[in-house]
Amino acid sequence: MFDLSEEGRSRRSGASFDQASRSSPCRVQETIMTVPLDVRSAGNGRFSDDERAAVYRVIFERRDVRRNFLRKPIADEVLARVLTAAHHAGSVGFMQPWDFVVIRQRATKQAVKRLFQKTNAQAAMHYDGTRAALYRSLKLEGIEEAPVNIGVTCSRQRGGPHVLGRSTVRDTDLYSTCCAIQNLWLAARAEGIGVGWVSILDHGALKKVLGIPRPVKVLAYLCLGYVSDFATQPDLEMAGWRARIPVEELIHYESWGMKIQGKRRNGDAHHEGLHENGRRGTNKVGRRTAGVEGQSSSRGLRHPR
After folding, report:
1. Could you tell me the residue range of the domain that residue 151 belongs to?
2. Rounded to whole angstroms, how far apart are CA atoms 74 and 305?
3. Are 252 and 229 in a shared domain?
């Protein structure tokens, strides 16, 4: 069985989960759960056609869910798989700055819902006319309807004052936590669980509701639950709020604004040649070649995270 907090206990003394849930007889941290080995490690590093298609399917079918939540509870072992997937996100300097506050109690959800209502009323004042009417018609949260809410935080001091890779871009800990959120979202979708990100909240007030320490930053408040169906398009797209931008408008080649790919074939050939040489360990005249950053190619490519 897999204890979700085994790594967390070794690096901090604070609890990762909702303090209010300590009185509940069904606690995530008390129920030791497993992630099957065949899920965590396939062995050969390759994916079948069906597995690859499933990865793309879960990406394209991910939705920001705010409605149609069912009363069906999320089993502890399923929630454990989803949180474990989140915990396996990449992080700067292997910092793992995230924590997950799991909320099931109605009173806590009601308190958060009141925060949303106050902040949402303020946000609505930014719009006029038909845009304001459309905004007020949108359902932007499922706090009370979802069986599980999760607050995702970032402990910015974790790892000490000097975290590898963070010296010049301090916010990489925040980016890392967002990677964990995306992992959670995709894993939940694969489990048939909808996730909605409630961003219209005063995070300072939310920290007080959830008892989050002052140095810890709130990144997200998520609503999770099984749903009656997943929409075929994002809600905001269907409502006419915004349309998806064609991806070709967002891709630049070699420098900003270059939308024409140009001599891609030559570049590919150069890259392929380097790859082949690095893999064989010799160049075309039989000499030994250096690998990444001057390492011998016999050591292979190494990824820090």
Report:
1. 6-244
2. 31
3. no
